[in-house]
Amino acid sequence: MAIIGNIIKGVIEARDALSIEGDPAKEQHKVLVDLLEKAKDTQFGKKYSFDSILNSKNIQRTFSDSVPYFDYNKIKSEWWDKTINGEPNVAWPGSPDFFALSSGTTGKKSKRIPVTTDMLHSITRAGREQVFAMSNFDMPADFFEKEIMMLGSSTNLEERDGKKEGEISGISASNIPFWFKKYYKPGEKIAKIDDWDERVLSIAKHAKNWDIGALSGIPSWMELMLKKVLEYHRVNHIHEIWPNLRAYTSGGVAFDPYEKSFNALLGRPIQVIDTYLASEGFFACQVRPETTAMKLITDNGIYFEFVPFEPQYVNQDGSLTEDAPSLTLDKVEKDVDYVLIISTVAGAWRYIIGDTIAFTDVERAEIKITGRTKFFLNTVGSQLSVNKLNDAVKHLEDTLNIKVPEFTLCAKRFDDGFYHSWYLGSDKKLDRDNTAQILDNYLQNANKNYKVARSKALQGVKVRFVPQQMFAEWSGANKKKGGQVKMERVMGEERFQEWEDFISQQL
User: Fold this and answer.
1) 3-state secondary structure of 383
2) Range(s) for CATH 3.30.300 in the chain?
3) Is 320 a residue whose pLDDT tops 70?
4) Dihedral sign (CA 389, 395, 396, 397)
5) Which of 57-71, 226-240, 327-341, 455-469 has the lowest mean pLDDT?
6) What does the buried/exposed string (b/e) look like for 430-468 if buried means 16 or more CB atoms within 10 Å of the residue's CB?
7) At CA 153, angle to CA 499 and CA 131, rounded to 5?
8) In whole angstroms, what is the distance from residue 184 CA to residue 176 CA?
9) What is the reported pTM?
10) Could you tell me whether strands 98-102 and 111-115 are parallel, antiparallel, or unpaired per DSSP bridges?
């Protein structure tokens, strides 16, 4: 009998039964007030008169009117460079002990993002809220006694000028609470291995010694790890190694493109739970099994604003125009794309995270990620979000009975005009013209702007199949395997030429 599991499950269910559902909009107002109060004596707080904002009649509106938008380059050059150089009390009280390195999907050069003690506490609280939400997913008591495989970047953080730096998943894993260490796999020793391939091989070697009940990590790297475990032990599916595996916490990117290939590695269905964790904070997580949407965590040190994702407000590089209007949580609408803006307990102020989101349920503050501001495919007026591209690939998988977990494309100029040039990651090669026709037809039916573009400057679709492994090798060659590294879904022509040159060298 799972005595400890029953106790843990009972505590979670009791806590859930006693908790009162908060008002997300009111919680957000309080978060902003707390942020301004705590940072009013910092250099940033004095520059933008946080004291005056706090004394205004409409704090949220005065805040948005007084403080400009910041992308990474702007906030780094004007504020965070001082923090990086050791100056205290710049954009947040004190000095951070950690910096998250993040190149994301936008370039080779790593960003250095402050990670304060307050932010680590915020991430821990968000993780705890996610665990409490498990009471909604009807897990058996013994699930709460199983181990959790957290596949992130190396926890072997580098020291630089007395501060530690690494990817946020490595920083978080290196700061897990002592009581959680008995559940955490692959464990501290393996998690410190820097080389991705060596770390995954070590996981595979030890896999049979663990009783894994849940997985956590970015889908693309999780798939590669699971495949290595299957290959090493010569089994058909992962439940032959981990028979009690019941849940997978996905994050970083949309899970939909990976659903078919991921499920092929399982012996039976498991619960997939989406999360929204970035280098800048833990923003949202799925709390209900009847939806894949994620609930914004609105009472945890992060204040959200939303800018309508419309051409007149978004520059070609993904930045916002100075006059772009921001909405508070009580003013948003369902099924509208917004650019997400955050202010946080790590000294990010009105910061453009680079993601677009849409609300699926305004009252519950539930969202889905629809794309990236820089990867919105609009070179010839097609106006395709990453979300729409994911839908097209899912349709392709269902139509042709194939698995395409990875893809990238570019609106590329050929001799006879612009085409959407797709590279599909699949070890199964099919007729390219037929595949292109399926994608093209789907997008014309699903998106009116794409259909209009097809009647004008956009000539059509070109397709090429490449082995799925090529996408991992590209990430390894350009950045680093594993961790928070994500594949670019949409590339500009210069970057796409680098990709095509790389593929030519590999094949």
Assistant:
1) coil
2) 386-506
3) yes
4) positive
5) 455-469
6) beeeebbebbbebbeeebeebeebbeeebbebbbebbbb
7) 120
8) 9
9) 0.81
10) antiparallel
Q: To which residue do tokens 């400890």 refer?
A: 4
Given the candidates 3.40.50.1260, 3.40.50.12780, 3.20.20.80, 3.90.550.10, the CATH classification of the domain at 1-373 is 3.40.50.12780
Sign of CA dihedral 439, 443, 449, 454: positive
Report the mean per-residue pLDDT for the chain.
85
The dihedral sign for the CA sequence 230, 235, 241, 246: positive
- Domain limits, CATH 3.40.50.12780, in the chain: 1-373
β-strand partners of 142? none
Question: What six digits make up the tokens of 494?
Answer: 């210069």
Element (H, E) at 161: none
The DSSP secondary-structure symbol of 55 reads: T
- Which residue's entry shows tokens 């979300």? 387
Characterize the bridge pairing of strands 338-344 and 302-308: antiparallel
d(CA 47, CA 428): 58
What is the sign, positive or negative, of the torsion defined by CA atoms of 9, 15, 16, 17? positive
Q: Which fold would CATH assign to domain 386-506? A: GMP Synthetase; Chain A, domain 3 (3.30.300)
8 — pLDDT class (breaks 50, 70, 90): very low
Segment 226-233 mean pLDDT:
95
pLDDT of residue 494: 82
pLDDT digits (tens, 9 = 90+) for 126-153: 888 887 787 788 888 888 888 999 887 7
**CB-based contact 489:407 (threshold 8 Å):** yes
Long-range CB pairs of 495-498, under 8 A, 24+ apart, other chains included: 495/410, 496/408, 496/410, 496/412, 496/421
Instruction: Scan for tokens 């894993």, then name that residue.
Output: 173
Nearest 5°: phi and psi at 138?
55, 50
Nearest to 426 by CA among 390, 467, 395: 467
Tokens describing residue 18: 């006693």
Q: What is the DSSP string of 302-367?
A: EEEEEEE--TTTB-TTS-B-TT---B-GGG--BT--EEEEEEETTS--SEEEEEEEEEEETTTTEE
Q: Is 178 helix (H, G, I), strand (E, B) or coil?
A: helix
Q: Is the peptide bond before 186 cis (omega within 30 degrees of 0)?
A: yes
